[in-house]
Amino acid sequence: MMARKKSAGLNEKHIKVLQTIENFTNTFGYPPTIREIMERAHLSSTSVVNYYLDQLEEKGYIERSRGISRGLRVLKQFSDAVAVVTEQVLETVHDFLSIPLVGRIVASEPIPFPSSDFKPYDAESSMISIAKDMLPVPEKNIGDIFAMEVSGDSMIDAMVNDGDIVILKKTGEARNGDMVAIWLNDNNETTLKYFFDEGKRIRLQPANPTMDPIYIRDRSTVEVHGKVVMVVRKLSA
Amino acid sequence: MMARKKSAGLNEKHIKVLQTIENFTNTFGYPPTIREIMERAHLSSTSVVNYYLDQLEEKGYIERSRGISRGLRVLKQFSDAVAVVTEQVLETVHDFLSIPLVGRIVASEPIPFPSSDFKPYDAESSMISIAKDMLPVPEKNIGDIFAMEVSGDSMIDAMVNDGDIVILKKTGEARNGDMVAIWLNDNNETTLKYFFDEGKRIRLQPANPTMDPIYIRDRSTVEVHGKVVMVVRKLSA
DNA sequence: CTTGACACAGAACGAATGTTCAAGTAATAT
DNA sequence: ATATTACTTGAACATTCGTTCTGTGTCAAG
């Protein structure tokens, strides 16, 4: 996780919850339920929300009325919390990463892939800069991050566009459901697919439901290069 | 007994209920339940309260959200629900930009949106960090950058997903084909659409081909808030 | 006196919603 | 490694709370 002081400050989810409450209340005139916070803050369980609500109360940002629906009120307006956020931004601001842009994911040709001895700072390759706290990657894995540019629109079904930059974590293995960059030896190409290990075979699922999955029985013919952790798209200004 | 005029005004109980709601809301920060109104207004049954709430809504004094606990709000002035904007520029550090995350783009609800005198830092926002050299925006315009989080999947085939963060450049005008965040006065919402000025009308094209474009003839009913310059998607690591 | 609109009582139903727990995973400290 | 703390999951449970329904009483007009 990101370097963050837990005792005093608010982490990303605290802020998200707090922001959701304020937003909702301003919009509807009454505070949200736990489940409504869950949806809007993209959290996964009511108990997670409850967990953070307790902490926000502990820290004095909100007050809860137990057992009462929508029993929430914001004590410190978030403006007060901005100072905290600011602090965190300052903390992490010099904490950014230059990620090597190692190549392109092209449908028709193999890509130069960072070998195990690839250096984080390669004068030749171009770099992209990402704040560490933007990366959903634990600190210790941050050295395994690299980036590639997508060329062609073969990945459109995965919501990834021509010209997008995908940021990947280098890994030889993937868990089911991960979006991975995978080298297909037979097709002589690297693509982005959703990865599912089904035991006797590997299923590579395009995001586009109209496209059929690819089944791999011989694991030696594929090579997982990395797991997608972020996608960045620049549009023309 | 008092002469109760039915059609026009409010009788004693209407007022009592109304005042109870306001009082309660001011005190606790959230609206009362029907039963709480019952106690405080010294009424004898929940159905009585319900009865008067319906009438108050009929008369336009309150708004009810059916089936929702504490789903009440007093319709007076839409006070300055928009967040007070505090501002602070700490951006100068390094080559980094802390971009205010000003809210969400939600299909079904209005969002508090920075007004025309929008300042870089919003009270209700958290920030995201982007390297300046990552932004396809000239340095001088960098103060006009802000970010929003997308909620809902109406933009799915614009390659924009639920949970994505879109980074926008504040602008009142757009060029044809730009993806813009646009405020629809009629619908009271902000959405992402492709913008096309067709002379006598504006066409707002959803990316989803199953959805019909929106045509705007009265330009005063829409407001372009910004042009999308970047999309960032974080995946779970 | 009926009739009907209005105001109210009381209870019961079911959906909405807060709470809790047992167990799991991940990050961090020892 | 191992222990420890921090966080997450998913579900079940219990209560709160909006709704609805049946019935009662009032009052004024026909």
Question: Which tags fit this structure?
Answer:
homodimer, 237 residues, alpha+beta, Umud Fragment, subunit A, 2 domains, two-stranded antiparallel ribbon, disordered N terminus, DNA-binding
Q: From the alpha carbons, calculate the radius of gyration of chain A and give it in angstroms.
A: 22 Å
**pLDDT under 50 segments of chain A (min length 5)?**
1-8, 79-94, 107-125
Helix content of chain A: 10-25%
The best one-word shape of chain A is elongated
Biggest sheet, spatial arrangement of strands of chain A: 4-3-5-6-11-7-8-9-10
Largest interchain contact? A-B, 63 and 68 residues
Provide the structure class of chain A: alpha+beta
Given the structure, what is the number of helices of chain A?
Answer: 4
- State mean pLDDT of chain A (0 to 100 scale): 69
Largest sheet of chain A: 9 strands, mixed
Do you know the CATH architecture of the largest domain in chain A? Answer: Ribbon
CATH topology of the largest domain in chain A, which one?
Umud Fragment, subunit A
Oligomer: homodimer
In total, how many beta strands of chain A? 11
Summarize the structure in words.
The structure is a homodimer of 237-residue chains. By secondary structure, chain A is α+β, with helices and mostly antiparallel strands. Chain A has two domains: 12-92, Winged helix-like DNA-binding domain superfamily/Winged helix DNA-binding domain (Arc Repressor Mutant, subunit A, Orthogonal Bundle); 95-232, Umud Fragment, subunit A. Helices cover 22% and strands 29% of the residues of chain A. Chain A is built from four helices and eleven strands, in the order αααββαβββββββββ. In chain A, strands 4-3-5-6-11-7-8-9-10 form a nine-stranded mixed beta sheet, with no helix packed on it. In chain A, strands 1-2 form a two-stranded antiparallel sheet. Mean pLDDT of chain A is 69; it is low at 1-8, 79-94 and 107-125. Chains A and B meet through helix 1, strand 2, helix 4, strand 4 and strand 11 of A and strand 2, strand 3, strand 4 and strand 11 of B. Strand 11 (222-234) of chain A pairs antiparallel with strand 11 of chain B, so a sheet runs across the interface. The first copy, chain A, binds a DNA duplex (30 and 30 nucleotides) through residues 1, 6, 33-35, 44-48, 50-51, 66-71, 138-140.
